Amino acid sequence: MLVALTHGGDTLAVTRDAQGVWLDGNGVAPCGRAVTTFRDGTWVIGGLLPDGAERAVVRDVAGFESDATCSAGAWLATSSDAQPAVRFETADGRIVTAPPPAQLRPGAAPDHFDYVTPPATAWVPVEDALDPCPACDRIAWVSASDSVRCARCGHEATRWVAYASPAAPADRELVEPSEAAASEDWARRTSLRLTLEELRDATVFVVADSTRQPRLAGRSLSNGRPTAVFIPHGDRMTIKTTGDAVPDGLEGRQALQTMVQEAEPWPEVSAPAVSVWLDAQDRATRHAVATAERFTHDVEVERVAVPFAGLRSGTSWSLVGHTAGASVVISGRGHLPRRLRRVVDPAYELVGR
């Protein structure tokens, strides 16, 4: 065992054996990291310190910094964020540039893989990057064939963009547009009808006081039976009903994140710079969720007031509750819903007329 943390009576550790370095059964590549959670959902991140480093500083999306626990050349930290930015420092606070994580590549022998670190000559400066590094606040990005990282601290962007070449013409018989449209419309209507018929015995709720017509957007299945059912009311509100389930806080955060995300035009910069920009957009969205206001809101369900746990960021919000043996998650923008009603005839009520 190299380093360990105890939380809520449980202990997790970075360990080393003949096969490699591990965190809770997850392999840690040289100069890489692994992520897991304690039983209460607290994120745990850890790995090996780069040469010359004695500290690891973890910064979550809310901007909060904390020192990781370090021992025997390894580091381990808890975080409210699954993807915190991490920088490494000497004892007196000088930043140590972490080398890029090694990647598994096929080895010389069959069924054998080796860790390979990209050579230093593979990295070129990203001259048109717009966003600073979330770990050290410097704009000093460099890119290789499939990744972008900070030249000052070694933080690696989690997104990667590559521009594809134009697709070749399809090698099949052409179909008249009117025939193709008619065929696609028939297939869509048939699939929707069959799906709605399967929901007849499922517990499904819609927002009763919404002015927009509810329609089926999707569902998930377990053993051939519908479980979660997604019903949007226009583009500003969505409700998900999951039968025989108890909701948790993660569902509320995920629902809020979908509402906070705003589609913005991509900047006219290079692919590596777009990767950095997308990374910054993702962190901004997760920051909004991490710092969201918590509140409680009662929603009337079958003439009974049911308390829902809420999160709010700006005009976006999410509500999570439990009623009729089902988990109900509602997300939207603007006004909060006041009443829910159970769907009686899905084939009539959810066709989105």
Largest sheet: spatial strand order: 18-26-22-23-24-25-21-20-19
The proportion of residues in beta strands is 35-45%
Shape: elongated
Class based on secondary structure composition and strand pairing: alpha+beta
Helical proportion, percent range: 10-25%
What is the assembly state of the chains in this entry? Answer: single chain
Task: Please provide a written account of the structure.
By secondary structure, the protein is of the alpha+beta class. It has 2 domains: 3-113, Immunoglobulin-like, CATH 2.60.40; 202-349, no CATH class. The protein has helices spanning 177-198, 249-260, 271-290, 346-349, and strands at residues 3-7, 10-17, 20-23, 26-28, 33-37, 43-48, 55-59, 65-67, 69-71, 74-79, 85-89, 95-96, 103-106, 113-116, 124-125, 141-143, 148-150, 205-207, 218-222, 225-232, 237-243, 293-301, 304-313, 316-323, 326-333, 339-342. The strands form 6 sheets. It has a 9-stranded mixed sheet. A 4-stranded antiparallel sheet has the order 1-2-3-4, with no helix packed on it. Strands 5-6-10-9 form a 4-stranded antiparallel sheet, with no helix packed on it. Strand 3 and strand 4 (26-28) form a beta hairpin. The chain starts with a strand and ends with a helix.
